[in-house]
Write the structure tokens for this entry.
Amino acid sequence: TSFAVFDKKIKAYDSIAEEKRIAKAKIEKERTDRIDTMLGALDGLVNNGQAFNLSAENIQQHLKALEEAEISAVDFQEKTEMAEMVKASGIETLTNLLASREKWEAEQAEQAAKLKADQAEAARVKEEQAEIAKANELKEKELEKKQAAFDALEAKTKADQKKKDDEAAEKIRKQVAQLEAGRKALEKEKADIAAKKYSDMYDSAEWINMVIVNDSAVKMNADFDLAKAQDDEDLKEKL
């Protein structure tokens, strides 16, 4: 019976001790969990500050929050040094990241400004080229009008000149034809005159021949008569 009582006391003591151990372990776990949570918060500030494509302004906000994070031995206890290392390392990391991001954003801003300036210049050049093209088009149309007018004038001039040349050629042809007709008429007249002259000369020659023949005949008859008379006279004398 005394053993049972003693055993009961031992079990009660063990139970109380177990409860105390459990309570103590719970408190310890809560303490370490709280420290780990605060360390996780520090890591979160660092990690969140390194998120992809985060702006310099957001990085600056995370860096500021990290710098303002208070590290005390009361809060971090045995992990105070670790917390300070996490904070210092995070500040260095975010500071470098911020510098890189600010440089990149400055370059991007510069490139954007340059792009904007280039686009503005391109727009200006395009507008200027459009104005030049429009002016050239107007000049080309004006030149086309002038060319058309010139071509029309040239064609008219050539046509007028051809007409004049044709008229002059026709006039010359007619004059040549008239001259040729006159020449032929003159030649015919000359031929007629020559023919008449030859005819007259022939008629004259015939008449002259007739006269000469008649005269010769008369003379011959006279001579014959004279000779006969002489012969008769001589014959009379002989008788």
